[in-house]
Amino acid sequence: MSDHEAKSRSIKELKAKKHHEKLSLLRASVKEIVHREKMEPQFVILFGSYARGDFNGFSDVDLIVVDHNRDQADRLACSIQEQGLADDVLTLNSEEWNQKKKSDSFFWKSILQESICLYEHS
């Protein structure tokens, strides 16, 4: 293995480790906020560069909160943003989420393919 290949491999390994750590932190933080606020959203979903693993120092955290009640989703989104956990939080009720999952939109198709569920109500 050349020196260049070794450095490239080390960078990839470091980035994978950082990605895993960020996901663990996001999962724990979302769970803590959900419990503190006494909410039970259906899902909190990570999408975008952090979900794909191609984030950099300028990347922001993008989330979707899905709840049966849109107002509840909005409340949780506000709490998440107030904690500085995410920059962009989309909120959807269950019906809207189900419609988005069937959408032909490139945006929603890519979200569904690349997203990571950080929290799911059990």
Task: Give a structural overview.
The protein has 122 residues and is of the alpha+beta class. The protein has one domain (3-120): 2-Layer Sandwich (Beta Polymerase, domain 2). It has five helices and four strands; from the N terminus they run αβαβαβααβ. Strands 3-2-1-4 form a four-stranded mixed β-sheet, with helices on both faces. Strand 2, helix 3 and strand 3 (88-93) form a beta-alpha-beta unit. It starts with a helix and ends with a strand. The model has no long low-confidence stretch (mean pLDDT 92).
User: What structural class do helix, strand and pairing data support?
Assistant: alpha+beta
Q: Going across the biggest sheet, name each strand in turn.
A: 3-2-1-4
Q: Round the Cα radius of gyration to an integer and report it.
A: 16 Å
CATH topology: Beta Polymerase, domain 2
CATH superfamily: Beta Polymerase, domain 2
* Residues in helix, %: 55-70%
Instruction: State the CATH architecture.
Output: 2-Layer Sandwich
Level-1 CATH class name: Alpha Beta
Strand and helix order? HEHEHEHHE
Which sheet architecture does the biggest sheet show? Answer: 4 strands, mixed
Number of discrete helical segments: 5
Q: Uncertain segments of ≥5 residues (pLDDT<50)?
A: none
Number of domains: 1
Strand content: 15-25%
